[in-house]
Structure formats: structure tokens, C-alpha cells
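Encode chain A's predicted structure.
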Amino acid sequence: MTGDVGRAPTVSKGGTVSVVLVRPLALALLSLPDASGALAELYAATDLTPEILADTEARVSPAQLCVAWAAAVRLTGAPDLALRIADATPVGAFGIVEYVCRSEPTVRAALAEWCRYLRILDDAVRVALVEVADAGGQIALRVVTESEAPAPASHELCFALVLRQARTLVDGSLRAAGVAFTHDAPKAERERYRAYFDAPVRFGARFTEMVFEPAELDKPLRSSDPSLLAILRPTADEALGRDAVTLPLTDQVRRALRGALRSDDAQLEAVAKRLGMTGRSLQRRLRDEGTVFQTLRDELRKDLADRYLGQGMSFAEISFLLGFSEPSAFFRAFKRWTGLTPFERRLELGGA
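Encoded structure for chain A:
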């Protein structure tokens, strides 16, 4: 825990957000009378696609999350959409990050894990437990680094989910001393937030935070499971480390290509659209990472071709799976990649 030094939150540059945080918005639109039309508007506004949302490892930009929230609130006509989503969100919706938190012994320990592993879901925002200055030892779960494209309702959802789920896991009750948001809200909606959090709620505040008395944070969780925590934490640490050292865009392109090869959508513009950008911006960002789209596609096709040849698939099957129009096109490409024909490579691999 850090001390409250009274400084305003910093603003991150860049970062990405897991599609796990976008999916609740799409689900909220499914309850509308014209669900298909609303979803189409959401996709058009954000330049996302159903394929991106279905990819559990896909990540989007903070700007896309911000636009998605604005579109969802507009389409549903619900200024309190974050609170409605919190009520409808099932246990486990946020994967390993949530289960690590639920396995900790106390509310304080669970929130510390949330602060630590949030980057798996959103590495553009950072939250921390800080001691509130001149407040008798009160502790705040505070946004200390804000996205360069803030999505205010996403913070509302985060706090609502944290408090709602924690209340179901402690004996008796769990009370927040106060909740604050830096963004504003219609006066007509403010009582709704006060009632939901059962605490004073301020808008237009200096910090986005949820404040607790220390005794509240020391309450034990009924879901505490040290054995499960010992299993989950290494996996969460691995995910955290992987996110920190990999090249996110390169990985996203490879994943998008895997799903696009069979449908002959493995073209620059099609893949760029799935990733929420233009073909030109995709090429520019790939060059910044030391590669180009064609190279990534050829490398993936070559690796898959080797695997399929080793599995004894027919050349026609391999050509189809790799997105070639006919086997002869696959033969020419394979010769260019390896200097061998597919026949020769299969013999090397010990195939018939």
C-alpha cells in the first residue's frame, strides 16, 4: 500500500484492453427490441467485429473501449448502465483475475490482488490501495493512472462489481465509507448511485476512488481457498509477465490470421478491420515492431504447412486450410519459403 501524496492521477500513453471488458456491453444490447441493429451500430462505432469479441485473447485500444461505452449508453438510453451490468454479471466473468481475488483470505488481500493483476485485463489503467490523508486511517481503492481515452462508466462498473461481489463473500455486511468519480453525472441519477453503493457518492471529485474503513477491509472472505490460490497465482503471474514482454499487435495479427486463413480473409484490410484499424495503420505499427503483414502471413502459413505435412494431410486439404485458391499456388509458395517442394518436405519429415 502506498501513501496518499495528494497528486492527481497520471495519464498513460497507449496500452490495450482485453475484449473481456467489452463483451458486457454487447450482452447489454442483446436485451433491446432491435438487438441486431444496436449491435451493428456498436460495431460500426468502434470498428470492432463479432470475431474480435469472440477471441478470448484479443485486445482493443482504450479509445475503442471509451467509444463502446458511449455507444452502449446511448443505444440503451440508460445513464446507469454500469450499475445494471454489475447486477447482471455472473460469477467468473473476469476469469483468472477474479478467481485469484476470490481465493484470498480477506477483502484487503483480494483488493491488493485486483490492483496487481488488473493489467491482464487493462494495462492502460492502474489502481492502487492508498491511505487517505487526514482521514483517520481510511484506505482508498484509487485510480492512480488513467487511460489517455478514459471510459468513466468502466470505473463505475469496476467499483460496483467489487462491492457487490465482496458483499456476497463476507459474513454480515460490507460498507464503503464513500465513493468518488472525477467525471460528472446527471443530478437525476445521483441518488441511484448513492442507493446502489449505500454510501455517499461524489461526482466531479479529484480522484476516482472507493474508500473503506480499515476494519471493513480486514473482514474474511468465505470463498478463501489457499490451495486453489497456490494453483492460480503462478498462472496469473505468467499471464502478467507474458503481457509485459510480448509484442501485442504482432500476436494479435497471428491470432487473427489463424482464424482468417480458411475463409480466405487473410488479407491486409480484412485483418486490419478485425483488429479495429486501417490497413495503412496496421502496416505502420507492424514496421515499428520490425516486421510486415506479408512476412507474418508467410511465416504462419509455412509453420502450419509443416505441421499438416507431418500429420499426413493431403495437399488439397493443406491448400484449403492455408487459404490458397488451388494446390499449385500452395506448391509455388512452399517452394519459395523453403526451397523444397511439399513432396520433398514430407519425405524429410518421414511421411509417405
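The chain is about 55% helix and 10% strand.
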